[in-house]
Amino acid sequence: MCSGSFARCLGITLIPLAILCVLCNILLFFPGGKPAAKNENITDEVWYFGGILGSGVLMIFPALVFLGMKNNDCCGCCGNESCGKRFAMFFSVIFAGVGLLGAGYSFIVSAAAINRGPKCLTLINGSYVYPFVDGNYLGNHTLWELCLEPSGIVTWHLTLFSMLLIMGLVQVVLCGFQVINGLIGTVCGDCCGCCGGGD
What we know:
- The chain has a two-stranded antiparallel ribbon.
- It has one domain.
- It has helices spanning 3-27, 50-67, 83-116, 153-188; strands at 120-121, 128-129.
- The chain is elongated and about 65 Å long.
- By secondary structure, it is mainly alpha-helical.
């Protein structure tokens, strides 16, 4: 497969992933599927915008660049018909790096949120606190009963942050592939040529 076509395939895959990450992060602002009475009742990691900023906005830019790689027509740059394509592939490596940073940020925030657990109302002092320590609730579902409100908050928290974690990891892998693909395209040029015959 040509480097430009491969980059386009990655872009097509990254767009829906970025949209899903934004939606997951937005849903986390509604603990247990209901509006929070106070902003302080929402888990801190939700406010870090890992899904909205990291895997969402910062991922849209690389995805759009990758989508345009196949049809990028840069023939005749400096009198060399392949140098334009090489520059475009190098440019995609930079954007892939941006995507790696964004997805990595989302992955780290999600992992921290899963380990810490949700913020919920408990009997400990009748206020919203973090009742779990170092992910101890992950293997012990009886601890979930410590959270009285919002209803189903542990499942809600764990499901959405796990989705962000997995999608962030997939985005890291895809952007990593484009870094390699872009470097190969920069050094070797597009295997299908730039003019005549297409990508």
